[in-house]
Design goal:
mainly alpha; Arc Repressor Mutant, subunit A; elongated; 2 strands; 134 residues
Length: 134
């Protein structure tokens, strides 16, 4: 699946954080977005580990953007929270990696591979700033 709930929640969180004047904690974000706090906390930690967010501890702690919105692209966000690049189809990245004995005769793989490349390029060029301006 291309965009899962984790990617959706990550993007929604980034939009809220980009508009915040100070760090927001996971409790506040989960209430604002009506998202499970435990699920959202995992997403936010992934974004912090990927250097997209800063994580602050303490009474006034929370999360804030580490990068400028124009420097955060949707491919890196989705890849970060999904643990792998988002895929349009469940197939091997190359014909050589295909577990099927029929890989050499697969007529749809070239099309799907081209489609995946176009989607990857689109997501790599789509930034948080683009979403904020729409």
């Amino acid at each position: 699946m291309l965009i899962t709930r984790a990617s959706e929640y990550a993007i929604l969180s980034l939009i809220l954080l980009s508009k915040a004047e100070s760090p927001m904690d996971s409790d506040t974000l989960s209430r604002e977005l009506s998202i499970s706090k435990s699920f959202l906390a995992k997403i936010l930690q992934s974004l912090a580990k990927a250097q997209i967010l800063n994580s602050y501890k303490g009474v006034n702690g929370g999360f804030a953007l580490k990068k400028e919105p124009q420097d955060i692209n949707m491919l890196e966000v989705a890849s970060c929270v999904e643990g792998k690049a988002p895929a349009v189809f469940e197939c091997a990245p190359s014909l050589e990696d295909c577990p099927s004995e029929k890989a050499s005769t697969c007529s749809i793989w070239p099309f799907l591979h081209k489609l995946q490349g176009k989607i990857d390029l689109f997501l790599a060029n789509l930034t948080l700033a683009d979403l904020l301006n729409d």
